[in-house]
Specification:
The protein is mainly α. It has ten helices and two strands, in the order ααααααααββαα. Belongs to the 4-toluene sulfonate uptake permease (TSUP) (TC 2.A.102) family.
């Protein structure tokens, strides 16, 4: 019971942080959840070490369903969801999420871990140095569909909500920052739904997984994380509309850089 209580507290704390980040930066929280679960699950759960990474990714996506939907709802109340923009992007996101989950479950765990670490480093550099400059590109639905497909595929493979990829991409196509964050939040939910289904299906019948998991989703961790994340997203959204996020992004980028390097080094 002592270890179980620690697991619950740790996951609840992760959820609280993730909720704020989801509302503030438009990210689903996978950049925090996946590395955290990779390190804590082996200490509390007996399972095949090679399956820890896909289990962490599938679990992360399952939490993002509620976290992103809560964040998107709060952005919607502020009138920031562009339905026309969402349609083009969301179609690509759904396709990419299904594709990504099928790819990820066939990749060895250590390769996924190193790849995820590399992605964190790239996201950290983007967050630290990216300037919100707009280009002269038009809002082509085909280009937006492409952005959605690429975001959905990478996000589903890595277990993230996709905001760190989608937000700068949409801003590049002259979408207002707060609208891009709102769109990323809703698309994060789409990625999470289709990605989670994929990880469940591909994990059914796999030996070496915890008894409380369904496919590559460990539900005790999911429930503990979302029990706090759905409440703290509102606070993150308020911060997004009241604080300059540039400095906060740089601090968060340093954190991601350190975690990414640690995962690459194993």
């Amino acid at each position: 019971m002592f270890e179980l209580s620690h697991f619950i507290i740790i996951c609840a704390a992760i959820g609280a942080v993730v909720g704020v980040l989801a509302g503030l930066l438009g990210i689903g929280g996978g950049v925090v959840i996946v590395p955290a679960l990779v390190y804590i699950i082996p200490h509390f759960v007996e399972m095949d070490p090679q399956l820890v990474m896909p289990l962490a990714i599938g679990t992360s996506l399952s939490t993002i369903i509620l976290t992103s939907s809560s964040s998107a709802l709060n952005h919607y109340k502020r009138g920031q969801l562009d339905k026309t923009l969402l349609f083009s992007v969301a179609l690509g996101v759904a396709l990419g999420a299904l594709l990504g989950s099928s790819i990820a479950t066939s990749i060895p765990g250590y390769v996924l871990k190193a790849s995820f670490g590399s992605l964190l480093v790239l996201i950290a550099l983007q967050m630290a140095f990216y300037s919100n400059r707009s280009s002269n590109s038009t809002h082509s639905p085909y280009k937006l569909f492409g952005v959605g497909t690429l975001t959905g595929t990478i996000s589903s493979i890595m277990g993230i909500g996709g905001g760190a990829i989608m937000v700068p991409s949409l801003v590049w196509y002259q979408v207002k920052m707060t609208t891009a964050i709102a769109c990323a939040a809703l698309c994060g939910m789409v990625i999470a739904i289709f990605g989670t289904l994929g990880y469940i299906v591909h994990g059914l019948g796999v030996t070496g997984l915890p008894s409380a998991s369904i496919g590559f989703v460990y539900w005790p961790a999911t429930l503990c994380i979302v029990c706090t994340s759905v409440f703290t997203t509102r606070f993150g959204v308020k911060l997004a509309y009241s604080l300059p996020t540039k400095k906060l992004k740089k601090y968060f980028a340093v954190f991601l850089l350190l975690v990414g390097i640690r995962m690459i080094l194993g």
